[in-house]
Amino acid sequence: MKVFENLKSAATKRGGAYLVLIDPDTRMGTELQDFVEEVCTQGADAILVGGSLILDAGFQSTIDLVRKHSSLPVIIFPGSVQQLSPQADAVLYLSLISGRNPYYLFGEHVIAAPVIRKLGIEPISTGYMLFESGRTTTAEFMSNTRPLPVSKPEIAMAHALAAQYMGMQTVYLEAGSGADRSIPSSLVQAVCGYIDIPVIVGGGIRTPDDARSKIEAGATFIVTGNIYDNSDNIKLLSEFARAVHIKESS
Ligand code: 1GP
Q: Which atom in ligand 1 lies closest to the alpha carbon of residue 51?
């Protein structure tokens, strides 16, 4: 049960940690295998696997292949309780604290807990905060919740602090996959300066500079996913990793 502790240590040493999200709907077979190998060799710190709406039901085969070819920790970023596997090292045990839908606050968790225990994977208790980002995201639609306003940092700060006080290990500031706008760095700074637990930031981050600005604002973990749907962008992997690892930059 050391996956999260190890990731935090890596982030402390490197200035931040870079997590690459693989959506099982986007790649398969040798294309997926090649991508996993690139992610592992270009400086990422862990691989997340999941998505809020998996269309081809390919989660299990994807995670099997990722596990087989990954030298990095494999962490499930589940869209539902169906997305669990013994092939993973850990799972983000998400509570959608920005919303008030009880099923996503403490519903699926009860169903998933015994399964996670049986599978022997590490749960990482995560306060998941969805923010408005210009258009309706899959996560927002599927969870039937309202996102938090980015223009009211005090609301985000209060939610994040509540997550900390409830004993959660981290909070995830989420703009939604493919969001038009990532979470503003000023908001990241407000939240990170207010709480003591590490902060994950993801959604709509399209440039290494944007990733770096979130780390400079206090984020511990950066997640990108969508950017690599375009294979031409795979060459950016090492640039993103360098941008996140601010203590290693010359
Ligand atoms: C989505 O935060 C992740 O849940 C990553 O978002 O796909 O926009 O990089 P992107």
A: 4
Nearest atom within ligand 1 for CA of residue 179: 8
CATH code, domain carrying 240: 3.20.20.390
Range of the domain at 24: 3-9+18-249
The answer to which of 89-93, 140-144, 165-169, 213-217 has the lowest mean pLDDT is 140-144
Task: Give the number of other Cβ atoms within 10 Å of residue 101's Cβ.
Answer: 12
Cα–Cα nearest to 179, from 157, 202, 159, 197: 202
Give CA–CA dist 237/46, Å, rounded.
13
The residues lining ligand 1, judged by C-beta closer than 6 Å to any ligand atom, are 21, 174, 177-179, 202-205, 223-227
Report if pTM > 0.85.
yes
- Calpha distance 216→112 (Å, rounded): 35
Domain count, the chain: 1
